[in-house]
Specification:
heterodimer, A: 391 residues, alpha+beta, OB fold (Dihydrolipoamide Acetyltransferase, E2P), 3 domains, 6-stranded mixed β-sheet, 4-stranded antiparallel β-sheet, 13 helices, rod-shaped, B: 237 residues, mainly alpha, 0% strand, elongated
């Protein structure tokens, strides 16, 4: 703004007609009582300032837009992109956002409820959350040399959220996160990490299984070890499966496939984890060809009361895949829930476990397990044929 | 105050008689113009006594003028000339010639108006008189102040171009004579002279004419012409 002298040429209503020192005839509002011929001062914006004002306006508009966008983003509740489960016992399942921060608990059993009553996890990064859970479990003697299995499962919430998932959420990294806190105390836990697809997550939720439990059930199925899915709620049953050499071999084989270039959080002991995964150090493992997840039959879904929902669980939308799975479920329920199968399973596992528990030579185990597996499969087929004929 | 007045060596004018004589000779046109306006007739040097009175008033104005006051010399000289002539007519009892300053008839006119006494109010009155005259001059061309507000260039470059064109029109005797005779701006000739496109000239025709009126009639618009002339473009009156 600058002052510009002008002479009043004409008075009309609420305005003056003036001639200013720049030679411009203008119409200005009557702010003071001036007569024709009086010289008054005008407040005018110079051309340069006009340009500046335009730029300031544009900048202000830009800032407003930016602030609004930032504000909107902040206002928006963080979206859950992945579901993570931890089964030790205690068992719990929680969601994480795009930044890998804890959002909310979805399920937890009574032990988890008691254990987590003391701490607040909301908003904490996932590594810190896992570290706290494992440390608390160790401190409360849930993890000890006799019981050192930690089963972790994770899955994107939807197919679209796969890309939004935090990059550090991978098997190797999770394995490191849960191993390190206890390793400091001198105990190296056994860790099984399972990655599930959103469809598998839906199946797990339908079957009231945690992601880890479902992953373990799948691994057992792949390994040819038959078990009832409902029994996976039982810690002893989980340990039994995890200690099964075939399942164990499958888990380790799965670990071997981990991309060593996956991003890691600084400060984690990569070497230790990789040493853990090294099959040479643990002895040769028998690997089975990996099946695609969709090829695996879903478990027998039974209602279990172990888990108490904390937050309202989302009901999966009805899809073609689900209806297929439902059909398969019924078939599997018919076949797998049969007493014969249960007997065969128990018999086979009993034999295998008896030998494995003695920690015999791995090669011998593998060979025998192979034979047993073949026999078990034959028996299972025969029994199935018999039951179909009887129907 | 016009630039030429600023450059004038007022101190030398007051001391050096020869310089004063030269300045009086240069200002005869102005003196005769003002005196003729007061007397409502054309005056001639050597024939009319009013011009001698006006010349004396102008000479007094040189003595009394103080440049630091910021008042245009010609405006001050004009007031002194008018007052002296009113006093002259009172003495001569020629009331019919007096019209502009009717209010002064009833009281004694102090012709020795000092520059300090030349108040803002009197300046405003002078300006108002100029504006009235300017309004009449515009009406001859069917122009009003409102028209000028509408056509007045807003952008600085356009305004400076049109001001330059108006100045060239006003100071070119041939072109200005055509304006006075025909009541129209000779656009083709002006375009040739100024090298400004006809389109621009046509768009700014009313503005050019109004400004040229102020510049061409330098003795009538001592105050107003200062608003359309840049400080470094002052034209000696």
């Amino acid at each position: 703004m600058s002052k510009l002298k002008a002479v009043v040429l004409e008075k009309s209503g609420t305005s003056y007609t003036v001639l200013d020192r720049e030679g411009t005839f203008r119409q200005v509002k009557r702010r003071i009582n001036a007569e024709v011929g009086d010289e008054i001062e005008l407040n005018v914006a110079r051309d340069g300032f006009r340009g500046l004002r335009v730029w300031v306006g544009v900048a202000a508009l830009f800032l407003m837009t930016l602030t609004s966008l930032l504000g909107w983003n902040l206002y928006q509740a963080p979206t859950a992109v992945a579901l993570v489960s931890v089964d030790i016992n205690p068992s719990l399942q929680f969601t994480v956002d795009t930044q890998g921060r804890f959002l909310e608990l979805q399920n937890q059993n009574e032990d988890a409820r008691q254990m987590l009553a003391q701490i607040a996890l909301k908003g904490k990064p996932i590594d810190e959350v896992l570290e706290k859970i494992v440390t608390l479990a160790y401190n409360q003697n849930f993890i000890n040399p006799e019981h050192d299995w930690i089963v972790v499962g994770y899955s994107p919430m939807t197919d679209k959220s796969i890309e939004k998932m935090p990059k550090e959420l991978n098997k190797l990294q999770i394995s490191n996160w849960v191993t390190e806190p206890i390793a400091k105390e001198g105990l190296t836990p056994e860790v099984a990490v399972f990655t599930l697809t959103p469809q598998e997550r839906d199946l797990a939720q339908k079957g009231d299984l945690s992601l880890g439990e479902f992953g373990l059930w799948q691994a057992a199925q792949k390994a040819g070890v038959i078990t009832e899915s409902g029994k996976l709620k039982d810690t002893m049953e989980r340990v039994r499966l995890l200690e099964n050499p075939q399942v164990k071999a499958l888990i380790k084989a799965d670990k071997k496939e981990i991309d060593p270039n996956l991003p890691l959080t600084p400060g984690t002991s990569m070497e230790k984890s990789r040493a853990l995964d090294n099959p040479i150090e643990k002895g040769p493992e028998k690997q089975k060809p990996k099946e695609s997840p969709s090829a695996i039959k879903p478990p027998n879904f039974r209602s279990e009361k172990d888990k108490e929902p904390v937050a309202s669980q989302k009901q999966p939308t009805e899809t073609k895949t689900e209806s297929d799975h439902d059909k398969m479920n019924n078939q599997v329920r018919d076949h797998l829930n049969g007493q014969i199968n249960g007997k065969v399973d128990d018999e086979v596992n009993g034999k295998v476990n008896g030998k494995v528990d003695g920690k015999a030579d791995d090669e011998v185990d593998d060979r025998k397990n192979g034979q047993v597996n073949d026999n078990t499969k034959e028996k299972t087929i025969n029994e199935n044929e018999r039951s179909e004929k009887s129907r | 105050m016009p630039e030429w007045e600023k450059q004038q060596q007022w101190h030398r004018l007051k001391e050096d008689l020869e310089a004063r004589e030269d300045f009086l000779a240069e200002s005869q046109t102005f003196i005769r113009h003002v005196a003729s306006q007061v007397c409502f007739r054309t005056l001639e040097w050597g024939r009319d006594d009013e011009l001698s009175e006006a010349l004396i008033a102008f000479n007094d104005a040189i003595d009394l003028f103080v440049e630091d006051k910021g008042v245009p010399f010609l405006a001050y000289a004009r007031v002194l000339i008018k007052r002296r002539l009113i006093d002259y007519y009172r003495k001569q009892r020629l009331r019919q010639a007096i019209s502009l300053d009717q209010e002064d008839l009833g009281r004694v006119v102090d012709i020795h108006l000092g520059i300090d006494e030349y108040s803002i109010r009197e300046q405003n009155n002078e300006r108002a008189a100029e504006i009235q005259q300017f309004s009449k001059a515009l009406s001859v061309f069917q122009l009003t102040f409102q028209d000028l507000v509408a056509v007045s260039p807003k952008h600085r470059d356009s305004r400076e171009t049109l001001l330059r064109v108006a100045r060239e029109l006003a100071l070119d005797p041939d072109l200005w004579l055509q304006v006075e005779r025909k009541g129209k701006v000779p656009m083709q000739a002006l375009a040739l002279k100024t090298q400004v496109s006809l389109k621009v000239l046509e768009r700014g025709r009313k503005y050019i004419l109004a400004v040229a009126l102020l510049i061409a009639n330098q003795h009538d618009y001592v105050y107003l012409r200062e608003y359309v002339l840049r400080q470094d473009e002052g034209v000696k009156g």
